[in-house]
Give the backbone structure.
Amino acid sequence: MEDLCLHAIEAARRGNVTYADARFVALRDQWLATEDERVSGISDSESTGLGIRVLIDGAWGFAATANLGREAVAAAAAEALRIACANRAIRRPDGVRWAREPAHQAVFRTPVAQDPFAVPLERKLDLLLRTNAGVLAVKGVRKCHSHMHFRRQHRFLATTDGTLVEGEVVTSTARCTATAVDASTAKTRYLEAPAANAGYEHIERTPFLAEAERVGSEAVAHLSAKPCPVGEKDLVLHPTHLALTMHESIGHATELDRVLGMEESLAGSSFATLDQLGKLRYGSGLMTITCDNTLPGGLATMGFDDDGVPGQRWDLIRDGLLVDYQTDRETCHAIGAERSHGSCRADSWASIPIIRQSNFGLAPGKTPLTPEELIADTKDGIYIDGMGSFSIDQKRQNFQFGGDCFWEIHNGKLTGMLKDVTYQAITTEFWRSLDAVCDQRFWMSIGVMNCGKGDPMQIAQMSHSAAPCRFRRIRVGGAR
């Protein structure tokens, strides 16, 4: 497909373009699902095509085709040129300022020990069904759903800069959810292999069979748990929970296209405006948020973004201060940067690339601290594990989060399970209350595979990392 991408670039050059790229993508997606003792669904789909983006006189044009014949690709390039010429009438007064980027020739592949698509279906389904059986053996559990999800993206990108790169990314994840039921309600608990760019070995490293009884028992215990108190509590948050809070209150707020008002669909704009760069006290001095699109296993670790920029590592927030954004080649000039951070990705060959969240994480604590020691140091709090419901406003400021499982902390001990826990805060007040972070030994990455953005909507994947940490005096309860 390298030759086909180069053919598309040559066809685009006929339009006197400032820049053009051609991106071939072959995507395979496999989903296996079980319910109780039966297989409830299997899907295995493939999608292949080529997208062409051109920039003429400060205006964009984009077209895509699933027909990979040379004539069809040339026709798509001609269509992209026509669209760019038409868009000149409605372009911004200053057009598009496109950052320079050196030419790159490289190949990137996710390190994979076991190709998940080569593992027999019977073997994968057997693991799911045996996990379900272990969960259902717990008295009080009425349902168990589990699934595995695998993706392979094979990409070629050619640009008029001279870049020609190839990438193959493999993503694997699995989850089991237990549902317990009593006379009046139902409660759930899940166990997962968090989504990661890795092979089937990632699934096998997760102790589904060993943990099945625990997951079922916690679902049952959830039924009789005490209701969430109303008031202020210290929160100890596990990385499996904190990933979503970070995603919504930091990730979307620091996408530069949102900050500039260029893209507000679904998730709105941002309170973290340009005038606050280098000034906004986003969080406490313990808060350093680092983007890293070279992170092993990270879902946004793809070698290069769809602007042809290599994966990089940089700080968004340093010692609590906002110092940077997630950028692409079109927006980086707005903060005086000469080069993009490489945060531009499309979800398929048929989509135009837009800024998407990078892998990013909260830096681990510098002082040795275990989760047990953190809980022992907490007098009146709640420990939250796993993701749940969330709500956040269009500026990424006011939010409410739930979770998957909750325990009360009293005088340094976990004293029992709680239910229906929610907490509410303003983003900066929440992160300024951060007062303790466990050390590197407990730092882990949690993949997010369903981040929606854009219009038409695109779905992207990325990872967020943290160690368990504590937030002081956060409002809890009272949700209706």
In short: The chain has two domains: 2-224, 227-476. DSSP finds nine helices and 25 strands in the chain.
